[in-house]
Design brief:
alpha+beta, five-stranded mixed sheet, 4 helices, 5 strands, 31% helix
Length: 157
């Protein structure tokens, strides 16, 4: 694996980020969600970040030794429903097709943990679709644990 350096995103990264986030549609949304709906939601979050960033949010870019962007992670601050404690949350993690399987996601997960520790958060959370088995294997490999299962019932009419 080639080493990756991590840096804060700049407005010049907008095109890379928006192109890369579109890949998330391929990773197993449930049948009642369209790929377009998933991508539109992620794009809205990123558009807000580029337009008026939340002061607690960060957008980090992993770049390879040639300074080519390979992946990004969008980090935000959330409040735990049960305890009320604030914590770090990985809102979006996306890897460019050319960088897949080369360690960029793992490098960004380590950077996300560093960010969360620097904020003095006791935990870092993330969500993924049930069918995104590759991502789930990575998260479990680096010690993320399943906490909540969310069930959905579609109502007619």
């Amino acid at each position: 694996m080639r080493p990756f350096t991590i840096r804060d995103a700049t407005p010049a990264d907008r095109s890379f980020v928006m192109d890369t986030v579109r890949r998330l549609a391929a990773f197993g949304p449930p049948p009642w969600r369209t790929a377009e709906e998933v991508v539109a939601g992620e794009v809205r979050s990123l558009e807000r970040f580029f337009a008026t960033p939340d002061p607690g949010a960060r957008l980090l870019i992993a770049q390879d030794a040639s300074h080519v962007a390979a992946a990004f992670v969008y980090l935000e601050v959330l409040r735990d429903y049960f305890s009320g404690e604030t914590h770090g949350h990985i809102g979006i993690l996306a890897v460019a097709a050319a960088a897949e399987g080369r360690g960029a996601a793992a490098a960004l997960l380590r950077a996300a943990e560093d960010w969360a520790r620097a904020q003095r958060f006791r935990k870092l959370t993330l969500n993924t679709f049930e069918g995104n088995l590759r991502a789930r294997r990575l998260y479990e490999h680096v010690d993320y644990r399943l906490e909540i299962l969310r069930y959905v019932k579609l109502l007619e009419g």
